[in-house]
TrEMBL record:
This is Diaminopimelate decarboxylase. Residues 73-327 form the Orn/DAP/Arg decarboxylase 2 N-terminal domain. Its EC number is 4.1.1.20. Specifically catalyzes the decarboxylation of meso-diaminopimelate (meso-DAP) to L-lysine. Residues 333-419 form the Orn/DAP/Arg decarboxylase 2 C-terminal domain. The active site is at residue 391. PROSITE patterns: ODR_DC_2_1, ODR_DC_2_2. Pyridoxal 5'-phosphate binds at residues 278, 320-323, 421. Pathway: Amino-acid biosynthesis; L-lysine biosynthesis via DAP pathway; L-lysine from DL-2,6-diaminopimelate: step 1/1.
């Protein structure tokens, strides 16, 4: 797919392949439970409700655009992951998908650990009371200040990402008089995305230390030689929105091979491996994600098998799902502003948000679903493109979808599965005010991240 430059963003024709959308669902009023948060349903009047509250009330109280997050669904998914992996494994929620202090508290209550990848995420985690030993700190270029903060706080593990970082973390740990627990992130030569994985061109990326050419083995050698570091394991993360377990299989096999080499060379059996995140969710009815139990079983079978054949003790496994926990739990609610039918093409439906609250469509050509949620409709389906209010033609929220032909300004529409990487990647482009995140549970709604205000914008602009 071409990404040729254009003064106002990618040209539609480059980004949007024509005619790839499927036929409209038989009944546009039906909400596919695969893509909607668990407590979402329609009430007797046909309006969507979440946690027992109708969207019209939510829109009135909190405004649009806004993200509504189904707290009981979030908690249930945390429990499902923790139960699936059991007491002999660790689940680290990847905070980059979406992090707030309320989320940190839910994670603690549900027994999950947390992966952070910046000083800001670390601050949020610590401020909300996450015990430092349950935090893993990631990043390919952690600053000295960030490392110092993490070491001082006593984070459970720092994931080393480069040769420089080995000595940097060792030095900081020594000067604080501590022995820091670390993992080494390796690039296993697999890059997986959605339905496929590729085993070529993989070392050409900024993360981790390559297994190839003995580089990871050298990183292990150097780490083991440093007294202020305690090497607890090897980490690998292979990609995003993955459905096929084949990439994890290759990755686990290669990590276990490294563990065997380490045992042979140093007489040390590293006790842990972390297989990262990247498990896919349903954005549209066509996606078929796997359940946490299936994933846990597949991963632990692979690791056990590989360890048996290498005659290694099976290490403790950890995983870092972000999207798979928070993604499906939220939807973005928008109000329809203008509707422009383009004869023979499609109808452009403009909403009061856009690429500032969901950059994923423009950035990754991501697919989303959309539904009319303030009412039901028996009108014919019409092919729409849901676009935002930004000064950019690539400002697309949902490329191709069907909404009822009687859609009108003032209707509320919602895009499901926006819990991950939407608020966390939101921007102030065009001085948009980033929307709030509202947690809904058992008939109660509460703001967990408030809407930005124009005062917020002016406060940053020191004049
Ligand atoms: N662990 C590590 C080391 C990671 O780098 C990531 C994601 C995760 C875990 C969590 O992956 P998840 O389970 O959420 O897929 N902005 C992109 C995704 C970038 C993911 C980066 N790393 C998106 O919107 O699709």
């Amino acid at each position: 797919m071409s990404r040729s430059a254009h003064p106002a963003g990618p040209r539609h024709a480059d980004v949007m392949t024509e005619g790839h959308y499927s036929a409209p669902a038989a009944d546009l009023n039906v909400l596919d439970e695969k893509v909607w948060a668990r407590t979402v349903t329609r009430d007797a009047d046909g309006a969507l409700t979440v946690g027992g509250i109708a969207v019209a009330r939510l829109a009135e109280e909190f405004g649009t655009p806004a993200y509504f997050l189904d707290e009981s669904d979030f908690r249930a998914r945390c429990r499902a992951w923790a139960d699936a992996f059991g007491p002999d494994a660790d689940v680290f929620y990847a905070g980059k998908a979406f992090l707030s202090r309320a989320v940190v508290r839910w994670l603690q209550e549900e027994g999950l650990n947390l992966d952070v990848c910046s000083g800001g995420e670390l601050t949020t985690a610590l401020d909300a009371g996450m015990p430092a030993e349950r935090i893993a700190f990631h990043g390919n270029n952690k600053t000295v200040a960030e490392i110092e903060r993490a070491v001082e706080a006593g984070v459970g593990r720092i994931v080393l990402d480069s040769f420089q970082e080995i000595v940097r973390v060792a030095h900081i740990a020594r000067s604080h008089g501590v022995r820091q627990r670390v993992q080494i992130r390796v690039t296993v030569g697999v890059e997986a995305h959605t339905h496929e994985f590729i085993a070529t061109a993989h070392e050409d990326q900024k993360f981790g230390i390559a297994l190839a050419d003995g580089q990871a083995a050298e990183a292990v050698r150097r780490t083991l030689a440093l007294d202020s570091l305690e090497l607890i394991g090897i980490h690998s993360h292979i990609g995003s929105q993955i459905f096929d377990m084949a990439g994890f299989e290759v990755s686990a096999r290669r990590v276990v091979q490294l563990l065997a080499e380490v045992r042979d060379e140093h007489g040390v059996e590293l006790p842990e491996i972390d297989l990262g995140g990247g498990l896919g969710i349903a954005y549209t009815s066509e996606d078929d994600p796997r359940e946490p139990h299936d994933i846990a079983k597949a991963l632990s079978d692979i690791v056990t098998r590989e360890c048996e054949s290498a005659k290694l003790r099976t290490p403790r496994i950890s995983v870092e799902p972000g999207r798979a926990i928070v993604g499906p739990t939220a939807f973005t609610l928008y109000e329809v502003g203008t509707i422009k039918p383009l004869e023979g093409l499609r109808t452009y439906v403009s909403v009061d948000g856009g690429m500032s609250d969901n950059i994923r469509t423009a950035l990754y050509d991501a697919e989303y679903s959309v539904a009319l949620v303030s009412r039901t409709s028996e009108a014919e389906p019409m092919l729409v493109r849901v676009v935002g209010k930004h000064c950019e033609s690539g400002d697309i929220v949902v490329k191709d979808a069907f909404l009822p032909a009687d859609l009108a300004p003032g209707d509320l529409i919602a895009v499901p599965a926006t819990g991950a990487y939407c608020r966390s990647m939101a921007s102030n482009y065009n001085h948009a005010l980033r929307p709030p995140v509202v947690a809904v549970r058992d008939g109660e709604a509460r703001v967990i991240v408030r809407r930005e205000t124009e005062e917020d914008l002016l406060r940053l602009d020191v004049g």
